[in-house]
Structures are given as C-alpha cells and as structure tokens.
Description:
With 289 residues, the protein is an alpha+beta fold. The protein contains 10 helices and 9 strands. Strands 1, 2, 3, 4, 5, 6, 7, 8 and 9 form a 9-stranded antiparallel beta sheet that branches. The radius of gyration is 23 Å and the shape is elongated.
Amino acid sequence: MLERLNQALEHVEAHLVDQRIEVAELARIAVTSEYHFRRMFSALAGIPLSEYIRRRRLTVAGAEVLAGERTLLEIAVRYGYTSGEAFARAFRAVHGVGPGEARRTGAALHSQPRMSFRLVIEGSSGMRYRVVEKEQFVVAGRKARVPLVHEGMNHAIADFIRSIGQETIRRITALSDQEPEGIVAVSDGLDPSRAEGTELDYYHGVVTRAAVPEDLDALTVPAGAWAVFENSGPFPQALQYLWRDVFTQWFPSNPYRSRPGPEILRTRLSPDGAEADAELWIPVERTEV
C-alpha cells in the first residue's frame, strides 16, 4: 500500500505545472477508492491532500518567482491560477509575502518538501482487532454539528453532552439492543480532508433496531463489514492515538480499506475520568490482495 501511495505522490510531482491533479487518478494509481485515499493521506501526512498539493505548487512557483525568468502572470497561469490577484493571495498565505515583493527583495520563502511514505517499526505490541459483519441498524440519540479536534478535549462535544438531560440519557440507553452496547459516540459526515476544525455530525446515542421515538435523532446505517479496534490508556489521548494508529499502521498492513459510513466509539471511563477502555468501529471493505 505504501509503495502505491508513493507512486501517487510521484504523479503529483509530475503534474504540478499546467495540469489539474485529479484525486480519482491518484486513487487509481494507489489501487484504492477516493474516499480511502483521502483519509489515508491525511492520516499519514498530517495535512489534507488538497493542502499538500497547494503547498507543493506554491513552493515550486516560489522558486520561479525568485528566478525572474517569467512574468508573475505567466507563473500564475502556469500553476493553475486564473488571475494574478488569486495567485498573489495564495502565495502570501503560504510564504507570508506577496510574489512581487518576494521578487524585488529576494525574500526568504517557505518550502513544502516532497513527501514519501515508509514503514517505521516503533514497537513490538500488536493491535487488538476483529472484523464483524452487521446488518442494517440505526443510531438513535441526540445529534450536534461540531468541529473536528485531533488532539485534546473537544469542548463542543463536552458541552453538548452536558446539555442532554439525564432522563433523555436513560431513554436513549434503554434502546440499546446490540453491540457496541450502551451509549456510544458516533461521528458522521466528516469532511474528506479530515482537516482540524472542519465540521461533522456527532451523535450521542446507541446502536439499535428498535423503533426510535420522534423526539430523538436517528441515523440509518446500511449493512456491511466493520473493523473493531480495542485499546486502553489516558483519556482522551489514547482514543485519538488509536484512530491515528488504525490509519497509519493497520490499513497499510491489512487487505482492507475504509468505506463511507459513520465511525463509532464506545468508551468506558475510570472512576476519576483519567483512563478509558475503548472500542473503535470503522466501516471497511476487503481489497484485492
């Protein structure tokens, strides 16, 4: 998988100039879906694919600005910008200085290095996981639109959970009739980029096949395969590291890829709230070996 991802990055480099880079073509090279390619890239690289391409283009364009062999408008068009103004805005966002000023003063510019992925062995402990097939089910509970937070407490989620009354929690919990059992955290509708601060639908609810009362929110989830991962550790860091490890270690080493669908997290906190046992459910499909 990593070799194929690196081949896709070679394609990016070959088409920085004059041509539009299609995610569908990158996914084809990596022999995976667009959905999984975007998620794998952001997990491995730490930035969205679109942002990496933008930074690489403006890194190479910056060298041409300083070289002075082409006009600024020629460079703008060469790297896919429809006007000098649009190019100047993008250039300043990355380099902190406009292209005209950079050329006049020889200013220092920021560089986005070319990326390549390689497998690094960081320990001898394996990941605990299983793959299960589930029939169609419903997530029933309360829903809120919240920002994505990669590390540390998500205060929007914490505030939302505190706003739900205990009687409502009791009614929701009573609907649970299958695994993962009890109250779960469900993330749906995530932006493909997985960028910090992008929004998602967060459900505080249960997994059920029971009829859902009209005053509760419901999300119908189609039948399919799920990879279920388990870990224990400090809360919330261990949970966030679990998601990272799934995409940076497990997927590159196993014949599965992620498919569209919600992610389900079942968490059980220690009495002092400092530690947690967790199950992370990721919708998956098997790939060709």
